[in-house]
Amino acid sequence: MGSLLRSPGLILGAALTAALVGMALLSLAWTPYPPAEMNIAQRLAAPSAAHPLGTDQFGRDVLSMVMGGAWNSIVVALVAVAIGAGIGVPLGALAAARRGWVDEAVMRFNDFAFAFPALLSAVMITALAGPGAVNAIIAIGIFNIPVFARLTRGAALALWQRDFVLAARVAAKGDAAITVEHILPNLAGLLIVQATIQFALGILAEASLSYLGLGVQPPAPSWGKMLNEAQTYIYMAPRLAIFPGLAIALSVLGLNLLGDGLRDLLDPRLRRER
Amino acid sequence: MTLFLLRRTAALIVTLLVATLVVFVVLEVLPGDPAAVMLGTGASEETLAALRAQLGLDRPAPERYLRWLGGMLTGDFGRSYTYDVPVAGLVAERAQVSLPLALLAIALSTAIAIPVGVFAAARRGWPADAAVMGLTQVGVAVPNFWLGLLLIVVFSVQLGWLPAGGFAGWDAGVWPALRSLLLPAVALALPQAAILARVTRSTVLETLREDYVRTARAKGLGPGKALWRHAVPNALIPVVTIMGLQFSFLLAGTIVIENVFALPGIGRLIFQSIAQRDLIVVKDVVVLLAATVVIVNFLVDVAYALLDPRLRLGSGHG
After folding, report:
1. CB-CB: which of B149, B206, B317 is closest to A273?
2. How many CB pairs under 8 A join A and B?
3. Of the candidates A127, A130, A91, A110, which has an alpha carbon nearest to the alpha carbon of residue A216?
4. pLDDT for residue A3
5. Is residue B288 less than 8 Å (CB to CB) from chain A?
6. For residues A95 and A187, is the Cβ–Cβ distance under 8 A?
7. How does residue B112 score in pLDDT terms, banded at 50, 70 and 90?
8. ipTM exceeding 0.85?
9. Which residues fall within 8 angstroms of residue A96, CB to CB, at 6 or more apart?
10. In sequence order, what are the residues at sequence separation of 6 or more whose Cβ sits closer than 8 angstroms to the Cβ of residue A115?
11. Residues 6+ apart with CB under 8 A from B170
12. How far apart are CA A192 and CA A194, in angstroms?
């Protein structure tokens, strides 16, 4: 606990992340106005008591839309991390356990998957099936796979050389049992840190994709889409470009600080260098 | 070294082939009838048949794939369905915007990141270091397209100094063209610079602890000279690797930023092609971009091995 209090970054990161998650969960039960509710009479209204962040070109309440956008961001980024870890971790663990051609095949698959940034996958999926939130999830998820596979493989290779793995081998345990009982539990910390960072990258990627119209579709609220619409009114109401961007930046900042702080906490040797 | 190069080149070729195959399957086999996708639901059977014949879609898929691959190897990327011009020419024309934009962004981000990173490392633990680290942490979190919008608000809407979008064209002269690329390049460069500055700081800190730096200091070299002559040049090798790995982010960033600033580059081309359902252009551009990422990573790997002999003696991957 003492070391926790000495990490202001970790505390700030945890607070920002808690605010993001809290806002997203709250939006499921309550927002000041329904995020999609239009009120043309109130269009482009400046911030007031009734609308703390003002309204957009359709008179929609910006605060309610930012809150709803938080939920959308979290769902897309979280499922994309689950896809990346769900496929990447077993692949990396398999490559480390089997070595040889299996390792080679997994590494080549990694090279290939690295060649497709989330944006390129999203472009292809959209050209094929039209835009939508599921496309964004798949595209970001595909990009996460090699990240987790590389990390797991690299760290697992080192663990396979350790004495406790040798002991398990002597006890006649198979590759699969050793991986599940000894390798993966030792990688948990590392994977949690990486998942936090990929979660942050996922929020950034989702925002880019929905800004470009490749992500979640109207009337569902999304930060990227809000910024896209704000650009049309940038001369009349430049403030519309402020709040969704601030929400993205604070969420990503929070998750990155949380990831860095957790890494320091789990591996104090790294602290001095960072 | 030769073995390493051969292995790495073979892996590069396999990766490129798999990438083309996947793009072909996704964009030409999975849609069922690409002609129907391109013409939409209202097209008559005759028009569909004519387009299928024009695109060679009446031939079997493996033959089409090999023709496409062979064409690309000889610089023939096919003809755009909507623009009715060769795709190669279209891409070359758009690259006149995208390439200078990306290069400008790389130059800007490096020019900012390396001095800032070295400065922070030299002042490690001091308030200046903490301030730099805090700023870079924020820089990493700011999405480039939002930064682009904020730059438009300040420099175009409020101050009226620079255009909010569009491209003057190189025919209008170098300065008007560069003026249209300035804000987009800054929007791309700053988040990249934040990442690079953090990497530079931590690698300089690592090299400062090396024996050769200690020896240089013991021989009477001042801390500044030891830093710039010994620590920084060695620290830049991993920085270049990270720049290579960041290349795919830069590429994606360029596509997004071109759309923010309405620049007629490759990023705009890809979105216009999606809107017009021009699958031929989408297919070619996606493959070109993916191949660029693969080749840049290959070059970085090889350069790294040339600079660091320990790596090429290893297994050749990792």
Report:
1. B206
2. 129
3. A130
4. 59
5. no
6. no
7. very high
8. yes
9. A103, A152, A153, A156, A157, A159, A160, A183
10. B15, B19, B248, B290, B291, B293, B294
11. B96, B177
12. 5
